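Obj: model holo form, ligand = magnesium ion.
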Amino acid sequence: MTVLRIQSSSDMEALGEAVGSHLQAGDVVVLHGPLGAGKTTFTRGVGTALQVEGQIQSPTFVVARDHKRVAEGQPPLIHVDAYRLSHAEELVDLDLDYDHSIVVIEWGRPFVERVVDQWLDVNIHTPSEDSDDTDVPSDSGDRVVTVTAHSRQGVDTRFAPLLEELNDFGH
Ligand SMILES: Nc1ncnc2c1ncn2[C@@H]1O[C@H](COP(=O)(O)OP(=O)(O)OP(=O)(O)O)[C@@H](O)[C@H]1O
Ligand SMILES: [Mg+2]
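Output (holo structure tokens):
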């Protein structure tokens, strides 16, 4: 687990870029955090690292958007917004090709374990959500990001090098 303080949207994008540069086919990233936390901003950085075609934008009315890579033969980025999904089965029914894609799922935490065995969880916390943090103005841009590797089969090693590298992020 790595905990980072991210104070601007450009830093959030840079964090997405740092994570994105480690991603390969079969990887799944779940983004968790309130409306406007910065999930799509993070994904934009992932898209930059992967050099995808098309703009990364909030896919609220399109559950999943496919982004081809500029480089021939590279796995596509599938950007999912699970906000309007109410059952894991709806994610299962999308029948995404997880093995041959890189999948980023906003609001995916309640559903992800139905579709894959291993994933990276990125939690974006806005300190102003807490009632005892009233000295932090809501528009301060302050975010606390916690990145955790999850595996249903015990110890995960897939994301260890990434988590290690993130310890130096911003330093
Ligand atoms: N530290 C920060 N990290 C990310 N975004 C920030 C930060 N500070 C301010 N912002 C602003 O907050 C907004 C984040 O919007 P974004 O669409 O990325 O959020 P989201 O989590 O995807 O929201 P939604 O739940 O609606 O999909 C942007 O307008 C961005 O400029
Ligand atoms: Mg979003």
